[in-house]
Each structure stands twice: as structure tokens, then as C-alpha cells.
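Contributing: when you submit paired examples, paste them exactly as shown. First protein:
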Amino acid sequence: MYDEKIELLIDGKWRQSGDNKTTDLINPATEEVLATVPVCTDADLAEAADAADRGFQIWKNKTAIERYAIMSKAADLIEERKERIGRHLTMENGKSLAEGVPEVQFAVEVTRWYAEEGKRAYGRIVPARQANVRQMVYKEPVGPVAAFAAWNFPSGNVIRKIAGALGAGCSVVVKPSEETPGTAVALARCFQDAGVPAGVINMVFGTPDHISKTLLASPIFKKMSLTGSTEVGRLLQKRASETIMRSTMELGGHAPVIVHADADLEHAMNMLVAFKFRNAGQVCTSPTRFFIHESLYDAFVTGFVDRACKLKIGNGLDEGTQMGPMIAPRRLDALDDLISDAVVKGASLKLGGSRIEGPGYFFSPTVLADVPESARILSEEPFGPIASIMPFSDFDEVIERANALPYGLASFCFTSSSSLAMKTEALLDAGMVGVNHMMVSTPETPFGGVNASGFGSESGIEGLEAFQRTKFVTEFAL
């Protein structure tokens, strides 16, 4: 049963929008209406911005130890409630409980990481050129933050913004996706119950274009953080530039994976199938362009298809489910178009390629082999359960093909050679590179891309620094 009440959080109070307008929250596995989501008004957004301004004055003046205590309590509450939150996450997003509950646990660990790291926001003393001068560098919270989070990781995307802002001493107005709101609401309730002052965390829902246009035009906000598509990133960066607002942009990807001739083939196939179809491929770091050395190519395609066809597809609440539905019908249409285009242009459809009949937005795990460079799927992020597999023979050629797109979020390679690994990782044009495994996202390591995949990092010390500004003080002793 879905029993999370979806409300706006403004100035410490949960409530509906000013005009009581709502939209429906749909379970993508069953198409049933789970709840209604408030659509905020201009007045609601103005109140949220003002509340964040007041909340910032309170929160920034708390000591790092005081902030740590509240955030640590929030982490404990999230951990206590993770089974319930994870269940709601699965119902609104579609991913399996085996993925949903660990994602909530990730929120616990991110919150604890930022709580701890906030105590180590060190400045420094710079030796002066005069004996009676002292030179000091301080790290300060940048100010109120406007944050926008995507639907594919309802817990992970939201918590990086909330915990990062609070760890640095900032307040935040966060707009989670209207397609997965309950997870964010549940996380915010944990922070409230832990004692976060009114106005420090504000949460709004509604029409994304309207909310971003309104919040980013406000002089109150000093920092914008986005997880979303490259197209949305371009638009929001333009809007943020009007007030010279600092930005962190975690945008789209189209991750290449290179399987070299000396790779452990069984390990590579097991790892890649698991991560390709995680969250039905709706992951910005999901491997999408598979470059397999020609000596391993036929065996890889056969082994990959054999593993993918055994995946259990279904409602994420059902025991044993490994892959759930797409988030909405629009994604089914997009996948149909990309597959049709690839096949017409010469790709070989080895598995899947179609919707699964019945309730819910399910699409079959799909494998395309011998995909030509002209196919749209090699230049447009599929964001779904499709693997495009191609052979290669030459090292320089495959690096050029891997780096051919403007995206640069994650790249992967498999090899048994340390020297080949070092050579490959140095040449891949990406913000993150995984060698012989796919885990590029942890609370303590920087997560972010380059080029059209955005800039700045979340998580790690870099994630904290994104919410800080530098102040230099030079003091002359009289």
C-alpha cells in the first residue's frame, strides 16, 4: 500500500498548493494512481524562496558540530525507515526492491558523509610578505540553493543535493520529479524529525519549466544544482547566468565500454548484463555503446544474449524481479523509434526489441549487434534496456569511436593488463572511468561528467566544495 502523503514543504510546514491544483502519481508497473501531487503557484515559490533566505541565516550560523548532530540523526531516521521508503520508491519508480532499498541506504551513507565532511571544511593560513600581516583563507557556505532532481534515482539524486547543501551550511529549495515525489518527501520528513530548522529544507512540485524559470530568476539563490538531461541543462544554465549563479550540472551520458582482447570474458559479461539492465537501463552511467574486440565478439554477443534473456521482468515488488518497467509511455515510444532506425540501417536484432503486453510500461531487454555508425542510437542516449554491440580491431580506432560523442560522463573498459588499463583510462574523455567493474558512484568519491555531460561534481570533498565559496582576509596589525 502506498501511504505517503505528497505535500509541499515550505518554511517548515507541509501543505498543499495555494490553489489546491494537483496531478496524478502513476505506478509505472500497474498504471494505477498512487496519490496526487501538488502543483505550486507563483506565491508558493515566492514563499519557498523567502523561507530559504531566512533558513540560511539560521543554518549558516550553526557550528559544524551542531549541523553534524542534526544530519546524523536524520541519517539514523532514514535507515530506520528504509524498508518503507524503499517500497514506496519501487512503487513510484518501477525498479525492483533489490535496487530500491539499497538506494535508500545510499541516502543514509551520503548524509553521514556530508555531515562528517562538513566538520572538515578547512581554510588555510598563507604566509605573508610582511611580518605584521596575517593572511587567511576561509570556506563559507555559498548561500540558498535551488536544486532540481531527476526521476531515475528518486533517493540518490535528491539526497546528494540536500545533504551536500546542508553539510556546507546552505539552505535549499529542492524540486524532485513529479513522477517520483514520495521518496523525496519521506527523506525530507526524516530531516525535519531530526530537528532541521524551518526554512532550511523546502520542497516544491509542479510544472518543471515554471518552477525553474521562477526560482532561477530570484536574486535570493546563489547556487543551482541539476540532475537532468543535457537539453534541460542548457536551458537552466542560460537562466542561471542571468543572476551569475554558480552551477553544478549532472547531465546526460552515452557510456562506451571497451572489452579488450585479453579481458576476462565471463567476468565482463556478468558485470555488463547486471549493470546494463539495472533500473531498466534508465541510468545516466549505464553502458550503452559496447565495443568488443573482434577476437571475442561472437562469443560476447552469444553470452550476453544468453544472460539477458534469462532476466526476470515484472513488478518491482514481486520476489525475484530483476528488471521493472520504464517510467512512462513516452520512453516506450522513444525506444521503438531508436530500434526501428537501427534495424533499418543494418543492425541485427539479437534479442527483444518490443514492448511487453499487459498493464505497465514494460519493454523487453534488447540486444542489437553490428550497429552501424549512422544509427541514431549511437548518438542519442537510449536511456533504456538496449545494448548496442560492435566489434573493433585497433586500439586507436576504438578510442576515437568511444570519444566521438559530445558526452563525457562515464566510460568503462575490461582488460587483464595493468598497462593497457592505464593507457585506456588516460585516453577516455570522461569524468569517470571504471576498469573491470562499473561502480563509479559512492558517497566519498566525486560524481560528475565533462563536455555535454555537465560540469562540477557531487559527492566526495568536491561535492561539498560545490556549495562553498572562498573568502580571503588579510589583516594588518597596528
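Second protein:
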Amino acid sequence: MPPPPRPQNNGNPLLEILIAIVAPAIILMKFSSEQHLGSLNALLVALAFPFGWGVWGLVKERKLGLIAVLGVISTLLTGGIGLLKLDAQWLAVKEAAVPGLIGLAVMVSARTRWPLIRMLVYNRQLIDVDRVDARLAERGNGTAFEARLRNGTLLLAGTFFFSAFMNYVLARWIVNSPAGSEAFNEELGRLTLLSYPVIALPSMAMMIAIVYYVAHGAKQLTGLDLSDMLHHHADGQAK
């Protein structure tokens, strides 16, 4: 049960970790017994945390982003597997399917005029696009830069495929008890805790490396420093 994407402008990653990872894991592992909430109620309460966090992000942003929607759907599917007491292998399939679908969408975007990395990094809210494009045209490096954007998008898709593979392996390794049982909840809690250091942190490191790859390429191809490429609005906000 990976955490849903953090709403933009939240500015508090520690709060996200507490709400989407720590709280659900503690509830599943410590309060699933019949002496406490019971397996069903504990599952519902635990899932309410990441689900509420994802919905709050959608309301705050006032738009339906694909990744945020998939995060909410992922939480609902996890709850459905527990409530319907489906075979535990379906949890592993669900864990792999969500990042896998995102990876496919990212990979397809690399073959279009608007690879996803362009929307995430090379956009007018962040970059002085006119200035960078003019410098690329002046040096005849426009085609080379587009190729780097596409390569960056394919690398980004690779991080989601890595997440899908690791999600499946981790879920199959940890969650083996019948869905809806106390043991299932406890294993789901351990999966939630381990998914952050084993999957989320390496994926985040990969994404940082991809941003560096694109930024370093832009610097080489334009001859501009990063501070010269940033849009003056973004630069002003950083100050």
C-alpha cells in the first residue's frame, strides 16, 4: 500500500509520512486483534488515512491529476481486496499494476511532442523557456535537447517500472495470510512500512538523478547556468 502522491505546495513531507505510512501501519499491526478494533475495522480505519490524504490533495489542487487519482484508486482497491477477502496474490498484482500503468503512460508520452519530463521540469512556470529555446536555436542544439528530454522521460518511466517490480516482490514476500484476517492486516502494515525505504526512497533518488541529467544537458547545450535558465517568477519565489 504505497503512500499517495503528496499534494503540491504542502511543504511538509514529515506530515505525509506520518499520515500515509506510519499511522496506517501502526493501526494495522497493533489494533487488528479482536480485543481492539478487529481486522475489518482496523483495515477501514488504516485505509482512511491515505485515502483522506489523497482526496484532500485533489480538493486542494482543484484538479484531477492522473497520479493523484491513481493513488486514491490504489487505496480503494486495497480496501476492496481486504473486504472481499480475495487471494493475497491480488494485492501483489494491484501493488505492481498502479506504478506499472503510470510507467506505461510516461513511456508513451516519450513518443509524442510533449514528453512528460517537459511538463514536469521544462515548463514556463519554472524555466525561462523563450530564452532557453533561443539559445538552443542559436547553437543549433534544439534537436539534441529534444532527444535528451525524451531520454529523460524514458528513464522516468524506468523508475515506475522499478517500483512496480519491487512492489510485487515485496508484497508476495510479506503478505501471505488470507485477506480480511488479523494476520493479513499485520502483514499489510509491515508492507506499508517497508515500502518507503525499499521502494520510495530509491525511486526518489532516481528521479533526482534524472532531473540532474536533464538540467546538466540543458547547461551544456545552451551554455547558460541554471540560475540563468530559471524563470524570473520562480527565481523571485525562491528568494
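If you have annotations for the second protein, write them as plain sentences, like these:
The longest helix spans residues 182-222.
Residues 13-238 form one domain.
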